Amino acid sequence: MSQTSNAQNPLLDFSGFPRFSDARPEHVAPAVRGLLEENRALIARLTADTAAPTWANFVEPMNEAGERLGRAWGVVGHLHSVMDVPEWREAYNEMLPEVSRFYAEVGQNLALFHKFKALHDGPEYASLSPVRQRILDNELRDFRLSGAELPDAVKPRFQEIQEEQSQLGAKFSENILDATNAHSEWVSDEAGLAGIPEDARAAARAAAEKDGKPGWKFTLHMPSYLPVLQYADDRGLRERMYRAYATRASEASKPEWDNGPLIGKILALREEEAQLLGYRNFAEVSLVPKMADTPEQVLAFLRDLATKAKPFAERDLAELKAFAARELGLAELFPWDVAYASEKLRQARYAFSEQEVKQYFPEPKVLDGLFGVIRTLYKVDILPDEAPKWDPDVRFFRIEKEGELVGHFYLDLHARETKRGGAWMDSARSRHRRPAGGMETPVAYLVCNFPGPVNGKPATFTHDDVLTLFHECGHGLHHLLTKVEELAVSGIHGVEWDAVELPSQFMENFCWEWDVLSGMTAHVDTGEPLPRALYDKMIAAKNFQSGMQTVRQLEFSMFDLRIHSDIVAGGQPVPMEKVFGVLDEVRREVAVLFPPAWHRFPNSFSHIFAGGYAAGYYSYKWAEVLSADAFEAFEEAGAGKGSLLDAETGTRFWREILAVGGSRPALESFKAFRGREPKVDALLRHNGMVEA
Ligand SMILES: [Zn+2]
After folding, report:
1. Quick one: angle between helices 295-328 and 576-590, nearest 10?
2. How far, in Å, from the CA of 348 to the mean position of ligand 1?
3. How far is the CA of 472 from the centre of ligand 1 (A)?
4. How far apart are CA 503 and CA 429, in angstroms?
5. N or C: at which end does the chain have fewer Cβ atoms within 10 angstroms?
């Protein structure tokens, strides 16, 4: 067996920043295999040890070995995302199954569970800090939810339920994809394309050419489907596309792609899982690790928001219907007219050019603005620094507070051919105190896919880009400004799933503030700041149909929660009539738009049947409410002091929310910051849903 030393393999050098300039794909397998072996050997030794587990002899070595693996594999995963060339992809994919298998093994390791339990129930527990107690509580909770405490006789069935669920989830997604791919609409006469934008036409023409046919081919994939529904003047084409889309993976598509029976089975299995674990229903299980406590509490939250938003949704719809009848000659508004009429109304009311807005957001000015917000709020310095990088375009910064190092971050803003799409924040290193002494400071990756500079001119960003940058930076600050010294709950680690978007969405709010925007805009040619009239249009467009959009999200959330708490399967697959019964009730309560009876929305609701969102779809609105309410504290400070970039409120936000990470319940953190429970009012106001 070959021992790879730190000096030979840069992926095994944990002394400083990742050595991106030295790491090669051939380093991956030996480094990762070595670390997996090290972790497995350690776990075997610790679980075989008959001495009582303590924090020092059990948790600390586990943490340290786990961190080395996490960091090395993190670098590989990061490179796979930002430098996706064949050699790195191959190196990553070669090790991915082995790494996944290891983590699955740890989660199922009962000997490990018994060690954690012995420590938790033993004499040392009472003397541990509340943060360490919380870490142990979380460990036991996760083991318990994966069935570790079940009687041996039930364990095989529990395992079977898990496997069956993941197979059904995978099949659910495949059915949607197959059904989506199976349908296309052909247009043979150019006149039939009236209204559809040039780029969507070109894509449709290319799709037809690919099939070796004349005319234009439209599909149910979003980039093809959406422009038709939004722009096609041909009402019949819109209707056919709408119907095909709405009945994907249902009995109306192809029997073998019907997701109905899968939904029935998934719901029954989740109920059985919940009951084995000692809960009344699956919604209760889903909420155990989340910030919300009970399904009743979530439902009450959704109802409160619905009651307040519905009058605005009704007003949105009345306006849309009146406009469609008056301007478009659509006496009756059918479901396939809604997106079309909405787009026409939006253009009539709030037309402004994205291109025009973009001229006011040159990259250097935006970055100055962003860093300025952070400096003012938290009284920190952001300084350029040096570290090995994966691409010359990447920048690297250090954050200091009164001369003391807080953390570092990489900024990789521009799209590259080898970079995965989207934007994200990831951890390269997390803050924690080493058992041997000394503090490891946090390091974060901030990655976006914005356009780069062209012909010596700085890149310019859309307002959406700016929102994205602030959003990811909010995650970054959550990770970097932590003061927690324990790895498992430091930064974004251990933060409840429905609270993790609080700091990110919070940052977005600044991009809608006139005072902030006017200071971070400068026309790329004239240097003029964003004109007020253009800003007013942007705000109005932001809130366009916010009532209708809100109740739609509430409909999805309530449906998701109620099918996982109200329906009783009793060991039998749930018939679809029951599922649709709940959907009808929810719609009567909150919706303003009522799809046709043949609509099969649940059959393609993959968030909850094939993703991780079961009884958790509400999290989107939940986190939005928290972030808007937290931001309101800055608005209140601004009203009193003249600027919402108030350092006193910023310091409190840092201390009570960003600094504590997952070390205490998110609700406690929120209340410590706001002095009360969260309220929905700020979000409604930010979305323009206030009585004038
Ligand atoms: Zn986010």
Report:
1. 70
2. 32
3. 6
4. 19
5. C
Question: Cα(683)–Cα(625) distance, rounded to whole angstroms?
Answer: 6
471 CA to centre of ligand 1 in angstroms: 6
Main-chain dihedrals φ then ψ at residue 301, nearest 5 degrees:
-60, -45
Which is the catalytic residue, given 139, 472, 486, 508?
Answer: 472
Pairing of strands 432-433, 216-219: unpaired
Centre of ligand 1 from the C-alpha of residue 473, in Å: 9
267 closest CA partner among 616, 600, 574: 574
Q: Coil, strand or helix: which one is 65?
A: helix
- As given in the structure block, the two tokens for residue 190 are 């150019």
- CB of 418 within 8 A of CB of 78? no
CA of 287 to the centre of ligand 1 (A): 20
* pTM (2 d.p.): 0.91
Rounded distance, CA 538 to CA 524, Å? 19
Alpha carbon distance 238, 338 (integer Å)? 10
Rounded distance, CA 573 to CA 590, Å? 27
Report DSSP letters for 95-121, one per residue. HHHHHHHHHHHHHH-HHHHHHHHHHHH
Provide the H-helix boundaries in 445-545: 463-480, 502-508, 514-519, 532-542
With b for 16 or more beta-carbon neighbours within 10 A and e for fewer, the 558-577 pattern comes to bbbbbbbbebebeeebbebe
Tally of helices (H runs) and strands (E runs) in the chain: 26, 9
3-state helix, strand, coil in the chain (%, to 5): 60, 10, 35
CA of 678 from ligand 1 middle (Å) equals: 20
For residues 262 and 607, what is the distance between their CA atoms, to the nearest angstrom?
14
Burial-class residue 1 by CB neighbours within 10 Å (0-12, 13-18, 19+): exposed
What's the gap in Å between 161 CA and the centre of ligand 1? Answer: 31
What are the strands of the beta sheet with 424-429, ordered from one edge?
381-384, 395-401, 404-414, 443-450, 424-429
Exposure string of 413-432, with b = 16+ CB inside 10 Å and e = fewer, is bbeeeebeeebebbbbbbbb
Q: In angstroms, rounded to a whole number, what is the distance separating the alpha carbons of residues 79 and 141?
A: 33
Please report, as a single letter, which amino acid is at residue 674: R
pLDDT bucket at 108, cuts 50 / 70 / 90? confident
Is 486 labeled as catalytic in the residue annotation? no
> What are the Cα distances from residue 454, in Å, to 93, 244, 521, 649?
35, 42, 19, 40
Per residue in 394-409, pLDDT tens? 999 999 999 999 999 9
**Which whole number is the average pLDDT over 13-28?**
95
Beta-carbon count within 10 A of 620 CB: 17
Cα–Cα distance measured from residue 25 to residue 31, given in angstroms and rounded to the nearest whole number: 10
What's the gap in Å between 403 CA and the centre of ligand 1? 30
Are the beta carbons of 626 and 680 closer than 8 angstroms? no
pLDDT at 55: 97
Cα–Cα distance, 39 to 445 (Å, whole number): 26
| Dihedrals phi, psi of 440, to nearest 5 degrees | -90, 125
Q: Pairing between strand 443-450 and 404-414? A: parallel
Question: What distance in Å separates the CA atoms of residue 620 and residue 496, rounded to the nearest whole number?
Answer: 13
pLDDT tens by residue, 645-657: 999 999 999 999 9
Length of the chain: 692
The CA 551 to ligand 1 mean position distance, Å, reads: 22
- When the pLDDT of each residue in the chain is averaged and rounded to a whole number, the result is 95
Which among 563, 469, 480 has a CA at the least distance from the CA of 507?
469
| Averaged pLDDT for residues 74-84 | 94
